[in-house]
Specification:
five-stranded parallel sheet, about 450 residues, 19 helices, alpha/beta, 4 domains, Cobalt-precorrin-4 Transmethylase, domain 1, Methyltransferase, Cobalt-precorrin-4 Transmethylase, Domain 2, about 50% helix, Helix Hairpins
């Protein structure tokens, strides 16, 4: 019978290695290490590690399956082998679970487990917790959204080996600085760290590694499982899908624009009274959300920001832009809200002109409308020239249908003359904006700044 003996090196320090593990190491002729990335791995200098599999294979699942296959093959070749893992053999060791499952199906294979100290024992000691009495639930950081759904704590989140894992955990809970967590890193080693952090700083306080876990005494907010599931899906697509893995911010530009237009079309199809059209809007918003996720994922891969940073940033910005809701300011109506918003943007971003911040890539008609609207807050945009033109076209204030017909007529005239109406309007709007900005510092803008 082929036999695989499995023991653990404990949480990190040499003093945490049990006598049973040391005896197993001393007696073994064929020893394998899951990884040499452990403080006590140097105690087994002649062991063969599986570190190369982590570099050559795409997913952890493939790594653990390959490890199990290699160990079974070696056990059948040599009769008995020793497999040494970090911590304890039965705590977050999927390769060990694969070996146990294989032994259950193969009567010629035997798996023997040597009890070892796990990182859990050190966590309980350092935090002075009785996990049974307190009812602590152990969660895998990679599956936090699904496993912690509906939980309120206390939770110990293991396998938090990277800051992107901490970001995903943070994103799964809609919580502010009042929510606390305790990060435990390298417990039982000279580099041990135990740090209490506010929830928004969960992924910003330390550099996580394979010896990192998070203790959450109490969750004040429910886990956003569906939201995080879409983030995890994005991770997977970038890893395993040939098309998704090749995309860049630049290659996705047209897709983002197309999805935004499809959302607008879906909005036009919504009938609030009957409730029709909402199903289509939901679908199109999902497609747009995917584009946002995609760009955040690309930025995360470059170490710039994550979707959690995006969510936190817009949250904080909206709070700051609504002092009449979250502060002591007052706003009598919607117009005053908009005015306060614009003032806040100018102060916040250090802008010197009301025209700052208008995207140059807006469609020409939207660009023109935006320039005129911005200017109307500090000047009168309807110049004498514009008024004379509209007086000729409209006898009375026009409605939407009349404006649409006139715009169609202008487009037809431009087409017949061989003029690009989009380019012509963009050029006119840009020139008007530049004239306004040139006169703006003086505090006196010419009444004919629109047409020059």
């Amino acid at each position: 019978m082929a036999k695989i003996v499995i023991c653990g090196l404990g949480p990190g320090g040499d003093s945490d290695i049990t006598e049973a593990t040391l005896n197993a190491i001393a007696a073994s002729e064929h020893t394998y290490l899951r990884t040499s990335q452990h403080p006590s791995a140097t105690r087994i200098p002649n062991a063969q590690s599986f570190d190369s599999l982590y570099e050559s294979l795409e997913t952890f699942e493939e790594v653990y399956e390959a490890i199990a296959d290699k160990l079974i093959q070696s056990a059948k070749e040599f009769g008995e082998v020793l497999y040494v893992v970090p911590g304890s053999p039965l705590v977050l060791e999927r390769s060990v679970r694969n070996l146990i499952d294989a032994a259950d199906q193969d009567s010629s294979l035997d798996v023997e487990l040597v009890p070892s100290l796990s990182f859990l024992d050190v966590v309980w000691a350092r935090l002075r917790i009785d996990p049974v009495d307190d009812g602590v639930r152990l969660i895998d950081g990679h599956r936090f959204a699904s496993e912690a759904a509906g939980e309120r704590g206390p939770l110990l989140v293991a396998h938090a080996h990277a800051n992107w894992v901490l970001s995903d955990i943070k994103l799964a809970v809609e919580a502010g600085p009042e929510q606390k967590a305790i990060i435990c890193k390298a417990l039982g080693t000279p580099d041990e760290q135990i740090v209490e952090v506010a929830w928004p700083d969960l992924d910003r306080t330390i550099e996580a590694d394979h010896l990192t876990s998070v203790y959450i005494p109490h969750l004040a907010a429910p886990v956003a499982g569906e939201l995080l599931a879409s983030v995890e899906l994005m991770h997977r697509l970038r890893q395993d899908c040939p098309w998704d893995s090749e995309q860049t911010h630049e290659s996705l530009r047209r897709h983002l624009l197309e999805e935004a237009y499809e959302v607008l079309e879906a909005i036009d199809g919504v009938d609030v009274a009957s409730g029709e059209g909402y199903e289509h809007l939901e679908e199109e918003l999902g497609d747009l959300w995917f584009q946002i996720l995609f760009h955040a994922e690309l930025a995360s891969e470059q170490g710039q920001f994550t979707i959690a940073d995006v969510a936190r940033g817009v949250h904080d910005k909206l709070v700051g832009r609504h002092p009449h809701v979250f502060g002591g300011d007052q706003a009598a109506d919607a117009d005053e809200v908009v005015a306060n918003w614009e003032e806040a943007k100018i102060a916040e971003k250090g802008r010197t002109s009301v025209m700052d911040g208008i995207p140059k890539t807006l469609p020409a008609l939207t660009l023109a409308e935006k320039v005129l609207k911005k200017a109307s807050r500090v000047s009168q945009p309807v110049t004498e020239t514009a008024q004379r033109l509209t007086d000729v076209i409209f006898e009375t204030p026009p409605d939407e249908d009349e404006v649409g017909r006139v715009l169609m007529a202008v487009v037809e005239q431009a087409r017949a003359a061989g003029v690009d109406p989009e380019g012509a309007l963009r050029a006119a709007a840009t020139a008007a904006r530049d004239r306004f900005m040139a006169q703006e510092p003086s505090g006196s803008v010419s009444p004919n700044w629109v047409f020059g």
